[in-house]
Amino acid sequence: MALEMDTKNSNSSGTADAAAATTKTNKAKENNNLAGSKKNQSQNLVNGNGTTAGDGPATKKKGKKNRNKSPPVTADEAALSNGHVEEKKSEEDGEASASASADANANVLAVKEEKAAGGDGSAEAAELETEDIDLDALHDVGIHVNISCPGAELLTVQLSSMELVQEIHQLLMDREESCHRTCFSLQLDNVTLDNFAELKTIEQLETGSTIKVVEEPYTMREARIHVRHVRDLLKNLDPADAYNGIECTSLTYLNTITQGDLLDKKKTRPDSVDCTPPDYVTPGVFEPPLLPLHPNFKNAKGPQALKVLTTSAWNPPPGPRKLHGDLMYLYVITMEEKRYHISACSRGFFINQSTDDTFNPKPDNPSHLSHSLIDLLSHISPSFRRAFQTIQKRRTLRHAFERVATPYQVYQWAAPTLEHTVDAIRAEDAFSSKLGLGGGLSFVSCSYEEHIPGQTRDWNEELQTTRELPRKTLPERLLRERAIFKVHGDFVTAATRGAMAVIDGNVLAINPGEDSKMQMFIWNNIFFSLGFDVRDHYKELGGDFAAYVAPRYDLHGVRVYNAVDVEGLYTLGTVVIDYRGYRVTAQSIIPGILEREQEQSVVYGSIDFGKTVLSHPKYLELLRQAGKHLKILPHSVYNERDEPVELCSSVECKGIIGNDGRHYILDLLRTFPPDVNFLKLPEVKLSTELAEMGFPIEHRHKLCCLRQELLEAFVEDRYVNFIRIAAMHLQQLNAKKPEDTEPEKKKLPAIEEAEKESKENGNATGENEKQNENQPEPEPEKEKEQATPVETKNAEAMVNAIREAQSNVATSNEIQAAEVVKQACAAVGSMKEKEFDFRFNPDVFSPGIRHVDGEEGTSGSVAKQKLLVQDAAEFLVVKQIPAFVKEHLSHSSPPIDGQNLTESLHSHGINVRYLGKVIKMLGQMPRMDYLYRIAIMELIVRATKHIYYTYMQSTDPMQLSVAISHFLNCLLTNGPVNPVISNDEVHKKRGGNGGKHNKHKSSKGGKGQQQAAINQNGGGSSASSSSSSGAYDWTLVTPRSLWQQIRKESKAYWDWDLDCDSMDSAMQKFGIMRICLLRAFCLKVGIQVLLREYNFDSKHKPTFGDDDIVNVFPVVKHISPRASDAYNFYTTGQAKIQQGLFKEGYELISEALNLLNNVFGAMHQENGSCLRMLARLSYLLGDAQDALAIQQRAVIMSERVNGIDNPSTILEYTHLSLYSFANGHVGMSLKLLYRARYLLVLTCGEDHPEVALIDSNISLILHALGEYELSLRFIEHALKLNLKYFGNKAMHVAVSYHLMARTQSCMGDFRSALNNEKETYSIYKSQLGDKHEKTRDSAECLRLLTQQAVLLQRKMNDIYSNGKLTSDLPPIHITPPSMGSVLEMLNTINGILFVQISQRDIVKVRSEIEKHLKANTDESEVNEAIKSMVAAANNNGESEIVAPAQLTNGETAATNETVSS
Q1: Is residue 154 over pLDDT 60?
Q2: Model's pTM, two decimal places?
Q3: Does residue 1016 carry a pLDDT above 70?
Q4: What is the end-to-end Cα distance of the chain in Å, rounded?
């Protein structure tokens, strides 16, 4: 990762970061960990593209000064804790404005835990008490230091005492005036400073000291690094890397759309705004154009400084010249067409007398020796000097977030034609390190590996060592999580490069003699295998289909075991990469595993699906710990000698003790129990309800598992029932003792609610289930260390409540109390007789495994285990799918594309293989039309993906672009689709070496769909054909045969019939746009198409030609390491916000952002959601300017990390437009909304509830600008959508009618306005009653409109009857709306309501509830009452709460409107 390769001291952070396990290097290791892990901005902003970070030290360090003084108290100071520094502080650096300072500080992250959020007496106070000492240790002291550079003025910078000397290096390499220096040391009083010393350890260093920059002699390595740095500076503005998907660069267009930095803008006067929307934004667009997706890509590059900068062909220096100090030779062609040969020697760079034909290394006359190559080039080429200055100016003007590398690569699905330039460094990179030749020879390699002693990295050692770092205190955990994240990011990058090299044929197999599908590879200490069924390993489970999905399930297993994080249990680094139709699994290598057979290595589990089974006491102990969180039931099976063997995981899970003595587990594909709805098993009888729905469906492989989210929801559901039943029995017992009933009745429902709440704040990793273990037992287990504070509190409340209830009864009869629990356990089907216990046996339906059966009714009973797994599968269909649909009925955070939909399904525990059933349910609900369409599009895209992968495997590499464009033509167009193959290529194919080009060619016709591709009608599944012409099977695909295959696939895989005879009729029937389908498909399979307008209805020539396929990208799946402390702060902050405590919420979430910055660096998805939340809170707290500054960063972050057209980016744009309007940037606000609307329509079409919201916003702002005609068009469209999705009695619709009436009255059309306002009035009246403020407002509005309409009519009549105006009628008033009223309306439609609740109301609600509770215990009543009770409890003590209502993007920040009891 270029991000991490700090150009100066590469060997500092990386490997040591992870490994360095020897005692001797302990100190160094500590420092390196600091360098790589703890360090903040400068570490992260290093070298995103060779340059980056702070726009000058003056600004870079300012925020720290503010932050170190005292804990934030007010919201304003809290803002500073995040570095949104607003004062102008740029004495030393003229250009850096306040906003630059804010950006540079956006993530200066000295681990700051000032408040530890314990101040408000919240739950964390208890948890963090023990850590006070560490928090103090985290505080750093700011010092002012002068830095003197040769040939530059004295700089004064503010540094933190916690930083390393190395960061001053990076600071200087980023500053405009010193960025071209790489080879220098820092001296204080003529003593050279150690790069890895923390500043506080340097005794002589104090405020006011002057550090000197001393130029050091070059070595070969330093010279190479310098040249690379120069090249990176020159191509800094070029977006080519982002389009090519390398170096973790990505695009952002926010500043293009706002034409410069939003924060520098002056407020606009309404009359000076050009607000005409582009055609593709106005309502009624059918196919949006593609070009606006990448605005202004033509001017993105910046000026060209040199024609060529490359290594000379005279390299390396011959012996005699080496002895004269020559290190290497460069060749340069300037813009003035002059050619120079340059020598690098230890003292710098000079021009020599060589030409292209003769070698003469003597210095040119006059000789000019420069320590920096930039100085030399500026000296010999005036145009270089000018261009370099321009590039530097533009570089420093860019937002800090535009320059930092992202943690993982983001790929673009459309790209313009990029000019391919001569670039020796790029060429070297491609061939040295990427072939895995270990590249000590390469010129300057981008990969980190080249600069580390020992060359390649031992990934396994690094990944495991970081996990072993201590984690007792907060600083230790931050250090550990930072190291884990960093090594994991590097590993993903290396694995992706390796997988591409494997498929491209650049890596030699370790078993070259075997069939290409069986080959395995090792590259850069990573093991690669292909997703085919090797040696019939998966024959019984579905062959190649099973082999294809197994890596993905294995990755799920690795993810959950990593999340549980049991000390002493190790998993392999795992990345699954889909590239060019192949699935490659990349894994780190267990030490010693390659030296022996697998049979000898495995000490736990089974290598033959349960025929022979081994167990191991240490593994049992470790897996039992993990199993508690993952709900895995320890169970026993018989081995080949009929002896019972105990297991705490599935049989497939293998335990191997590596040569390093660590306990590794692998093959975790069956971590969770099987999904019996997709297995045809003779012994399983599904319920009639499921049978009627067509279950069980026989899936093409037998590895279907239930998701962890489902098991959690299922156990929670059972737990709620358990509490309810126990409560009922207890109440019956206590009926005889009236004085005791009251507390109990209240207590138990409260428990149930507390459980619910704790789940909502719950920890996705499964840690929150600890509450469920042994709850009703008087002595619950004390293993809640990792539970979040909120959970712990709720869990304790529950346990105490149950204990109290039990002891109340116990005083009279302990036996009865135990009986109650026993009855409740039996009723919900608990695994244990006398306590609530739900765990699953993952092997319970695995064929060929013989279980040791316990006695009936106990947890050892196999029948009971089977029943539980069946119940969970039934729960998915009967409860979770309807719950999913019901949740989306409110359209509070509607999915925007297939990716959103998939995530939402997964969060409910629903696998995508149920998509057909979900679609069936959505199809019956007209109000869910948009979701139905998105789901069908996702189904078509996934079915096409299955076909495409097989199609790609059998394609000759020489024809990839032709084959892909042919496939897209068949998929998306109506025109001709004749594939073009030139004659000489046909000759080649006849030569019979079709198989030779593509070494992984699928000999079985891939995954069995190949044959269908060959048959024109797509009907048959003829014998597999893989003759030498197999590489040309793709030419036989036609639109009709492809559509038949898609239909067949959707029926076979999802049991859903696409009842259309062609793609065209499907598009019309379901309202899908071709451009949306193209986007979804390209993202799903990793195709990059040319950025141009495509005419899908072209009748004469094919829509896609081979030139339209620009690139193919890998689709990478991996785990995402989490920042646990930040997560806890974030969830606690959210809980505070839901109670209406915004200030406390703001502080907690600021703290979460600080911790995230510490762990992930400046760029990460989670940082983005923190920023969005902080912006929203700033806005609610009345600081619109702060909201704008923070939201601007959220938008840039989302564009960079998620993608420029990702759904979350669209939402970020809509938020930014609101804050922008609130700050008086009216024109900008419109531009941002236009961009959001364009992206939304490009992603999912116009028919979507989110479009209605954007259109209402646009209409309101246009109305404010007096553009009534345009405004009306948008609001009419919004009204149409709101009526469709919310029904004609909804508030959304009332508001739309009201907005229409406002616009029409301004246009003088009072009659229409009157009719629309009447609609508003009738909705308010029926929904809210006559007395409500809104109803009264609407009535007043009607009165005024009627008045104006009557006046107008009288004037008209007068003119008609007398030909002129006679009577003295008052003039008609059309008052344009004030900006304030428009903003109020904008807030309303965006769901920001300021609700006041007084103490009196709360008391009233309380008494209501108590009445209810006394009256009856009917279940639904109790539930209602509980809800109101919790709402009231939240509001207790808050005399005035300002609560935002449902936020548009689904951050439900509680409406504290009292629940109608």
Answers
A1: yes
A2: 0.81
A3: no
A4: 57
Per DSSP, helices labelled H in 973-1033 are 983-990, 994-997, 1010-1014
- The CA distance from 530 to 510, in Å, is 13
Q: Give the DSSP H/E element, type plus range, for residue 306.
A: strand 306-311
Amino acid at 495: A
37-46, 366-375, 977-986, range with greatest mean pLDDT: 366-375
Q: Give one DSSP letter per residue of 180-228, joined into a string.
A: T--SEEEEETTEEPPTTSBGGG-TT--TT-EEEEEEPPP-HHHHHHHHH
CB burial of 853-862 (b: ≥16 within 10 Å; e: otherwise) equals ebeeeebbbb
DSSP secondary structure code for residue 876 in this structure: I
ω into 366 cis (within 30 of 0) = yes
Token digits for 1381?
A: 């009223």
Residue 210: phi, psi to the nearest 5? -110, 125
**Under a CB-based contact definition with an 8 Å cutoff, are residues 527 and 458 in contact?**
no
Averaged pLDDT for residues 576-580:
96
72 has a pLDDT exceeding 60: no
Pairing of strands 654-657, 602-604: antiparallel
Question: What rounded mean pLDDT belongs to the chain?
Answer: 78
Half-sphere exposure (CA, 13 Å, Cβ side) for 208?
0
Which among 1087, 1084, 823 is positioned nearest to 963, based on CA atoms? Answer: 1087
Q: How far is CA 1376 from CA 577, 657, 1264, 1265, 1301, in A?
A: 58, 77, 7, 9, 13
Residue 1079 burial class via C-beta count within 10 angstroms: exposed 0-12, middle 13-18, buried 19 and up = buried
Write out pLDDT tens, residues 824-868. Answer: 998 998 888 888 999 999 999 988 888 998 877 677 788 999 999
Q: CB 203: neighbour CB atoms within 10 A?
A: 7
SS3 (DSSP) at 709: helix
Burial of 1094 (C-beta count, 10 Å sphere; 0-12/13-18/19+): buried
- Token pair for 1386: 């904008």
**Spatial CA neighbour of 45 closest among 90, 92, 83:** 83
Tell me: the pLDDT tens digits for 393-433?
888 888 889 988 999 999 999 999 888 888 877 887 777 65
Give the Cβ contact number of residue 365 at 10 Å.
7
C-alpha torsion sign, points 1384, 1386, 1388, 1392? negative
900: tokens are 């959103």
In terms of DSSP H, where are the helices of 1363-1398?
1379-1389
Better-scored residue on pLDDT, 1098 or 14: 1098
Looking at the chain, the number of H-run helices and the number of E-run strands are 54, 23
DSSP string, 1050-1093: HHHHH------SSHHHHHHHHT--HHHHHHHHHHHHTEEEESS-
Encoding tokens for residue 451? 């600069």
Under the banding of pLDDT at 50, 70 and 90, the label for residue 1405 is: low
Rounded to whole angstroms, the Cα distance separating 190 from 214 reads 10
Tokens linked to 1378: 């004030």
Which of helix, strand or coil describes residue 614? strand
Residue keyed to tokens 């207590």: 747
Q: Is 1182 exposed, middle or buried (0-12, 13-18, 19+ CB in 10 A)?
A: exposed
Backbone angles phi, psi at 509, to 5 degrees: -70, 155
Give pLDDT, residue 370. Answer: 93
CA distance 586 to 663: 20
Q: What are φ and ψ of residue 374, in 5° steps?
A: -60, -45
Does the pLDDT of residue 1246 top 80, yes or no?
yes
Residue 1450: which region, alpha, beta or left (left: phi > 0; alpha: psi -120 to 50)?
left
Handedness of CA 26, 29, 31, 34 (dihedral sign): negative
